[in-house]
Amino acid sequence: MLQHPPNPDLIFTWGNPSRGDDALGPAMYELLQKEDLNGVDLLTDFQLQIEHTIDLEGRKRVLFVDASTSASAPFEFFRLQPEQDASYTTHAMSPQALLSVYRQVNGSNPPPAWLLSIRGYEFGLGLPLSTEANRNLLAAINHIKLLLDPAQPL
Amino acid sequence: MSSNLETADNPKKLERVVINPLTRVEGHGKVTLLQDENLHIKQARLHIVEFRGFEKFIQGRPYWELPVLVQRLCGICPVSHHLAAAKATDMLVGTTQLTPTAEKIRRLMHYGQTLQSHALHFFHLCSPDLLFGFDDDVRHRNIVGVIEDNPDIAKQGVLLRKYGQEVIRLTAGKRIHGTGAIPGGVNKALNREEIDYLQKDIGQIVQWGQDAVELIKRIFFEQLDYHMAFAAIDTNMMSMIGANGEFDIYHGGLRAKDADGGTIFDHVDYTCYSDYIREGVKNWSYMKFPFIEALGAENGWYRVGPLARVNNCDYFSTPLAEQQRKRFMDAGGGRPVQASLAYHWARQIELLYCTEAIRELLLDPDISGTELLNRGELQHCGVGVLEAPRGTLFHHYEIDDDGIVNKANLIVSTTNNNQAMNESIRQVAGMYLDGRQLTEPLLNQIEVAIRAYDPCLSCATHAMGKMPLEIILVNEKEEVIDRLEKRVTGEIQRTFS
User: Fold this and answer.
1) Which of A15, B128, B172, B350 could share a disulfide with A25, CB 3.0–4.6 Å?
2) ipTM value of the model?
3) Global pTM?
4) How far is the CA of B54 from the CAs of B57, B214, B383, B418, B454, in angstroms?
5) Which residues on chain A are in Cβ contact (under 8 Å) with B486?
């Protein structure tokens, strides 16, 4: 097969690398790629969409990572539940909506999922990651490392 | 050709309704409607936040970065920008003819992109409106409603889209930020394992493509009069066309026809696009209004995208899509089909074509060839044009002696359709809203008209928690007197001042 069987854990980041702090998700992806993460798959995309339900299949845990304009700094971390929200009907879905589509399409509950929502500030085209967002990113990756520590269950 | 609802005589004395932003339309769009005291619509405008900063983002970069860089302009159709930029850079590096392998790999990538984009639009974004009717309860007008009532359809939508993404991944090298197309060619062909992988499911994918066309056709004919009349406007249409008049979304000349199907221009070399197309401006919109120069701004605006492409072409080169095209053209009764909702029908014919074209290419030995590049002498100007899922996409660059971009001009599909979308909402406003109290289902009809064009209004930035729909009533003193808010949960709340 062209793709290896899914690892139990998935970290899915998203955002546009060239839109200021919207790059927080992809930047996290870059940082995590340098880590030696056993049993973890890393994926990134511009935004969440319906086909990503397939990426959730066969997982034991899923962590979504995104930039947020409203989260408390440096980040917010919380458990997600499947939820039908208005993002169902846009080109970019929320992770809750994705979980809901998973349940509807597959007829079973999605894997347990959490969202790490990192506070961003500037989202203009061509802007670099802001200093504050970069600080929040580093705090967030430390939190992920703790989460992946077998002694620290999610 | 423009409607008289573009500008009201005394706008200060009218009530203003703002729909902001649009649901199921990416990015930030806003519709403003001005009503007089008798509830008559006096003005209707679609405001779109333009892709401002594109040119600045690109200028100063070396040309060889362009095919990768421009993917970040838009997260909705990055592959279209990737390929349009690659075509422009082909010209910059003096490539007049791609190798067969390079062209076919690029075509495969493009068909994969168009397939996944059209699948999302039909199965996810627009099918709720079509399957359940425009006045269906708002809570049911979403994918949950589709899945509950038609679970197989929803699953097909997911799998069709995933298949298109897999074609992109294997031809572009990555799921996103692909590097497959480079100036003068491609950097990889497909190996046997990759071809086998894609061939495994292509029979099912073609079948689902056929099913999708049959479904939209059935829906369309169930209420034929309504679908033909809703948001229908008589327009010129422009698209790319193959050398023999065949449907082609990757390469060819430009063809424009008038509302009756008469030829305005044909087989125009797209590198000379600026001799035929002008970009007008209006003081109430950030977005430009392109028009055919020979006809002028008032009469020269046009539509692009699936409706224009299927109307304009002489034939499809694949048998199943060609069979469907003939049935489509019959609906026009000898004229081009002008119904805006026929975009959905045309879009699924294109989806079917893409599945057939992918199947053919997967049997072509050239896609695993080794001749990937073909370059000549460096040029200072490059123009790349193709048919993106939403319509004709222009990339135009000029570089200095060091290969640094010093001028860039992009005309994206949604910009090409700007005037047409405005005219469509004016038609709907005049037909369905005039003289009536504004309600959510009525306002949704405005959105249905816009969604037919599948506009892409954003560059993939997103922020959770933003209001998906807000309607504000403002009186002549600019005071908010009524506010209708659709929250992210789908809950509707009305606030009176």
Assistant:
1) A15
2) 0.85
3) 0.88
4) 5, 39, 16, 18, 21
5) 86
